[in-house]
Amino acid sequence: MDKQSLLDLLRHDARESVDDIARQLGADAEAVAAALEELEDDGVIRGYQAVVDWNNVDEEHVRAQVEVDVELDRETGYEEIARRIARFPEVATLRLVSGDYDFFIEVEGASMHAVSNFVSERIAPIPEVTKTVTHFVMDSYKEEGIELGDGDDDDRLSVSP
Amino acid sequence: MTLGDQLSDRVKQVPPSGIRKFFELAEEVDDVISLGVGEPDFSAPWAARTAAIDSLERGKTSYTSNRGMRELREAISERVTRYGQEYDPEDEIIVTTGASEAVDLAFRAFVDPGDVVAIPQPSYISYTPGAIFAGGEPLPVPTRAEDEFKLTPEALEAAGADEADVLVLCYPNNPTGAVMTDDELADVASFVRDHDLVVLSDEIYSDLRYEDDHASIATHPGMRERTIVFNGFSKAYAMTGLRLGYAMGPPGAIDAMNKVHQYAMLSAPTTAQYAALEALRSCDDSVDEMRREYDRRRRFVLARFEEMGLDCFEAKGAFYVFPEAPDGDDEAFAEGLLEEQNVALVPGSVFGEGGEGHLRVSYATGMRELREAMDRIEAYVSG
C-alpha cells in the first residue's frame, strides 16, 4: 500500500469510503483499512474535519490570527508555552514560526468581543508573552486547498468526440 | 438555384456525426452527469496560461513562421526524444492548429482520389470524413474486444488493407483506451513495410498511458521514412481550446504538408504557441499530477464496472474505458440511461465497426460526479 497516495486521496476528500479508495488505488479494501489504521496509530493522521465556509453559515463565527512574541528564560522553552496555549478550546491552530514573531495562533469565537477578550485575558497575561497582534479575518477565499465561492461551471460540451 | 443542391459530393457523402446526435439528446436533459466528454476537465497549467497572457501584453499578435515559432519547434524536437523520436526542428516538424489540422494536412498531402485509407475502428470520428474530403476511399479495419482493441496484422489482412495506400493509427486510442506495446507495433510495422503503406500515427494521448511508457511505430526499423506522427497539447496539457498540435515526419513530407498549411492556415495561433512553449518548458509536474488523477479514476471506474458485472477490458491509456453494453445494444442502453438516470455516455457504434455493443465512458470528470454516475449506471443496469 502506497501511503503517500492514500494521504493524497484523503487530503483531497477524507469522506471517501474505504471501498472507493481501494478501487482508485487498485488495492484491497482490507489493505486500505489496515494502512489507515496504521497511519492513525503512528500519529500521521490526527483527525478528519469538515472544511466550512463560514460565509454560508447564519450564526456569527469570528476568527482571528494572532501573532505572539514571547521571551524565554532558563526554565521555560517554546514547547512549554505552546502546551499552555494549545489547551484553550478557543485556539484552533498554534504554530511556532520563523520571522518577526514567535507563535502564530488562530482563534475562533462567537463574536469579535469574545475573541479580543480571549486574547487580552488569556494569552496576553501569560508571563512569557511580551506582545500580541490580532488580525481579524475579514473574508476567506481558500481553506485547506479548497476554493470558497461559487466556482466555475463546467462549460465543456456535454458530449464531444 | 439553392446552395444545398450545389454541395460537393465529398461533403454530401459524409453523414452527420453520431456524436452530434447524442450531444443534442443530452442537451435536452436537466442535471445530466456527462461521461461523454472527449476533453480534460482540468484547465491548462497556470504557467502556460500566464505565458499566453504575457505574450499578449508584449504585443505578440502577428503571424509566426508558417511552420511555427522556431523555439517551439526546437522544444518539441527535444520533448519527443523521450518517445525515442528524433526530428529536426528545421524541416521535420510543423506546428498546426490542433493535431486535427495536422491530420487533415496529411490526408490532403498524401491521398489521391481513389486512394484507399485503412482506418482501424472503432476510432476517433474525424479520420473517415478527413479521408473522404481528401478524395480517398476509407477502408474500415475492425479491431476486436478479444484483442483489447489492438490492431493486428490478421485484422489488417482480413479487411484487405494489403491493398491500401495509407494506414491511420491512433494509440493510445479514443474511444477504447487501448494501447499498443512496441512488440505489437513491430508486427503492424512489418505488415506496413511488406505492403508499402504510408502510416499516419495520431499519438495525441501519448502522455496518458498508465501502466507503461508510450511506444511509437515511427521508431521501428524502416518506419520513420513512411510515417507522419501527430501530437499536440490538447490532452496532456488540457489545452483543447487553445488549438495547438504538431506533425513530424521526413523533410519532404513536412514540406508538402506545409504547402497546404501555408495557404489554408498560414500559421497556428501565436498566443497558443507561446502557451505551448511554456508548457513544454515547465509543466511536466502538472501533467504528472493530472495523469495520477486520471489513473485513480480509471481504476475506480474499471473496478465499479467489474463489480456490476459489465465486461470491460482493462483500458490502459487516454481517459476512456469501453465496456460492453449489457444487452448488446449500445444505442438503446445509452438512450435509456440518459432518459432514466440522466447520465450521458457515447454509444460505441458512433465510432465505427467493432464499436457496436460497447459504450465509451470518459473519466475526464471529477470523482464526485464519477461516483454518482457509477451509482446511477449500477441502478440502471440492475433496474
TrEMBL record, chain A:
Residue ranges annotated for the HTH asnC-type domain, each copy included: 1-79
GO MF entries: sequence-specific DNA binding
Keywords on record: DNA-binding, Transcription, Transcription regulation
SUPFAM superfamilies, sorted: Dimeric alpha+beta barrel, Winged helix' DNA-binding domain
A Pfam family recorded for this sequence: HTH_24
UniProt-listed Gene3D superfamilies: 3.30.70.920, Winged helix-like DNA-binding domain superfamily/Winged helix DNA-binding domain (1.10.10.10)
UniProt cross-references to PANTHER family, sorted A to Z: HTH-TYPE TRANSCRIPTIONAL REGULATOR PTR2, TRANSCRIPTIONAL REGULATOR, ASNC FAMILY
Name this protein carries in UniProt: Lrp/AsnC family transcriptional regulator
